[in-house]
Specification:
alpha/beta, six-stranded parallel beta sheet
């Protein structure tokens, strides 16, 4: 499919959208991308920013806080979003899917409950530069196979209407209460 091929080749960089805190393991991603030499854009602020910038090579760009429109553009232009720590759920990963970007994620935590390896992205097992490099290779190998329409469908499972419906379905009806 020519359109799919064109979209894959128009992707410009890997992306991190995160608070810049030590537990997020962004330093490990920076080490991996320093070795790989591939472009990485990091969006977010936090107490680790100065240290992370000091260790980053020229292929790594820090954007800090950006507007919603800029964030949308970054997701749309990303090869994949990287989630390097154990997350309870992974809101930024769902956002990435909604804009057609697959996810490269650490294989622990809540993200493993909904992410489909090889379909919505890839997992890496070790929070090490080598583990992340292997995950990047898997993403690049499969980049043509991530269907943006399916990524959006997965993200839609977590939208506000789906949440409201799921919550309301779990609340039992009130009996004996006059309206």
């Amino acid at each position: 499919d020519y359109g799919k091929e064109r979209r894959a080749h128009s992707k410009k960089y890997f992306l991190i959208v995160s608070r810049l805190a030590a537990y997020k393991k962004i330093d490990v991603v920076i080490e991996a991308f320093n070795m790989l030499g591939l472009p990485l854009v990091i969006i977010g602020t936090g107490p680790e920013r100065e240290r992370l910038e000091g260790m980053a090579g020229e292929n790594i760009e820090f954007r800090g806080f950006i507007t919603d429109e800029e964030l949308r553009e970054h997701y749309q232009n990303a090869v994949a979003l990287i989630v390097a720590c154990e997350e309870d759920f992974g809101i930024s990963a769902i956002e990435a899917l909604s804009f057609g970007a697959p996810v490269l994620a650490y294989s622990k935590g809540g993200i493993t409950e909904w992410m489909e390896e090889g379909v919505t992205g890839e997992f890496f097992d070790a929070q090490t530069p080598a583990g992340i490099c292997e995950g990047v290779r898997k993403i690049l190998h499969g980049v043509m196979g991530y269907d943006p329409v399916h990524l959006l469908d997965v993200a839609q499972r977590f939208n506000e209407d789906a949440f409201r419906t799921a919550i309301l379905s779990r609340i039992p009806p009130c009996r004996g209460v006059d309206k």
